[in-house]
Amino acid sequence: MRSRATGLNATLLAGAIVALAGCSASSDEPREVPDTDLPVTEVLSRPDGFTQGFEVLSDGQWLMGTGGYGESQIQVVDADGKVVESANLPDEEFGEGTTVIGDTAYQLTWQSGVVHTWTLPDFQPGPSQSIEGEGWGLCSDEGAGGLWLSDGTPTLSLVDAESFDTISQVQVSDANQPVFNLNELECIDGAVWANVWQTNDIVVIDPSTGDVTRTYDFSDLAADQDTSEPGHVLNGIAYDDSSDSLLITGKEWDAVYRLDYAELIEQ
After folding, report:
1. Could you tell me if residue 2 is inside a domain?
2. In this structure, is residue 12 part of a structural domain?
3. What whole-number distance in Å separates Cα of residue 199 and Cα of residue 213?
4. Is the pLDDT of residue 7 over 50?
5. Spatial distance between the Cα atoms of 57 and 137, rounded to a whole number of angstroms
6. CATH code, 254
7. Of 165, 207, 99, 166, the residue nearest 157 (C-alpha)
8. Fewer Cβ atoms within 10 Å of its own Cβ: the N or the C terminal residue of the chain?
9. Cα 55 to Cα 235: distance, rounded to the nearest angstrom
10. Is residue 10 part of a domain?
């Protein structure tokens, strides 16, 4: 059963009570759902960070990968938006996309050619792999038998999860035009969802053809954030199968937005 939050009504009621009490609302109170036609059901707290990868773990906690030289981490975040476990990447590496298979987390680096693996939930380092070119986004596609990897070009590469050898590649296009800057990825129901870097768009890709089958505009969520800094853009897609919901965030955003997935794809 999909969860349907009553965040808006609860927030308005809480705000009224606080106002009557003559004191300001605490940061821990539910945040108001932004004015949007998107099926946002609640707005969740999250830790600071330059979000590069985002996954929902089997226990409902989040896996978040962050970027920045000397600042890149991989984190487990609890339901209150607090980091409960983390590991640092070397200062000379810039963390990128993440994904999970079983109790193993995978984390790309941008230009170092290194793919880190970590055990969950304690982040003990596992064997590392190497890739050619840049690492941007990563998602696990059980049906395809590998991981989809993006590198900022229109190419999506299906790689073996053990060796990172390339199994196949596909060129992504929309109306016969190549789509560049494919960034953070999420594999959902056989499709690859990809944020187009420095835009508010997420495209849905048929990996058998490379065709973009749908484009979603999340400008209303970006408008709810302080995006005055050039790098603070939409980036972060995670599917939560326990509630059939889609979680969306961005680099240095202060919230995660939960959307009703079934309602979204029906729009």
Report:
1. no
2. no
3. 18
4. no
5. 17
6. 2.130.10.10
7. 166
8. N
9. 12
10. no
Side-chain half-sphere exposure of 258, counting CA atoms within 13 A: 25
**Terminal C-alpha separation, the chain:** 20
Beta-bridged to residue 62, according to DSSP, are 56, 77
pLDDT of residue 128: 97
What pTM did the predictor assign? 0.88
Q: Read off the pLDDT of each residue in 218-243 and give the average, rounded to a whole number.
A: 95
Mean pLDDT value across the chain? 90
Strand, coil or helix: 234 = strand
Q: Inform me whether the pLDDT recorded for 122 exceeds 80.
A: yes
Separation in Å, CA 168 to CA 86, 120, 155, 209: 33, 28, 10, 12
User: Residue 16 CB: number of other CB atoms within 10 A?
Assistant: 10
Question: What is the total count of domains within the chain?
Answer: 1
Contact 193, 179 (CB under 8 A): no
Residue 112 lies in a domain: yes
Residues paired with residue 51 on neighbouring β-strands, in sequence order: 66
- What is each CA distance from 140 to 70, 74, 104, 190, in whole angstroms? 27, 17, 11, 10
- Per-residue pLDDT tens over the stretch 159-190: 999 999 999 999 999 999 999 999 999 999 99
* Residues 212-221, mean pLDDT to the nearest whole number: 98
Q: Which domain holds residue 71?
A: 39-266
Cis omega (within 30 of 0) for bond into 121: yes
The three-state DSSP-derived secondary structure of 67-101 is: CCCCCCEEEEECCCCCEEEEEECCCCCCEEEEEEE
| pLDDT exceeds cutoff 50 at 205 | yes
- Phi/psi region, residue 115 (left: phi>0; alpha: psi -120 to 50; beta: rest), is beta
How many distinct helices (H) and strands (E) make up the chain? 3, 22
Q: Contact at 8 Å (CB) between 91 and 112?
A: no
pLDDT of residue 175: 96
pLDDT score for 17: 33
